[in-house]
């Protein structure tokens, strides 16, 4: 069985109104959130074979903090603009491009795409994808045959629960 992890970026700083959305850094609270998720990943031995990360500043900073808990080298992540304005369909296409030798992937991105993905696969319509929320999704197909119907939400962790 294959696994997809979806991680929404940690809380960003809205104080600097002259910055473009793309360039907003993490807020102090966001740094705390990312550290909590990093510790969670480490304590639960979450390991991934591949990471795709949005090129927005806040997603890169979230990954920089979480990389230690994932034991994943920052230099090996694939940074892509596609995750900045993506929907679930674009995320599925990105994952479909993976080699079948890869058994787990982490996508670090943004709302509303993270929320839309979870809404499409979850039996619980009351999940709110908070900043730095981490979803673990089980996949019962090959990557190339991936569809939202073949995904099942195993767990959803939010920093406030840790």
From TrEMBL:
SUPFAM superfamilies: Phosphoglycerate mutase-like (SSF53254). Gene3D superfamilies: Phosphoglycerate mutase-like (3.40.50.1240). It comes from the Bacteria. SMART domains: PGAM. Substrate binds at residue 58. InterPro entries: His_Pase_superF_clade-1, His_PPase_superfam. This is Predicted phosphohistidine phosphatase SixA. The lineage of its organism: Bacteria, Pseudomonadati, Pseudomonadota, Gammaproteobacteria, environmental samples.
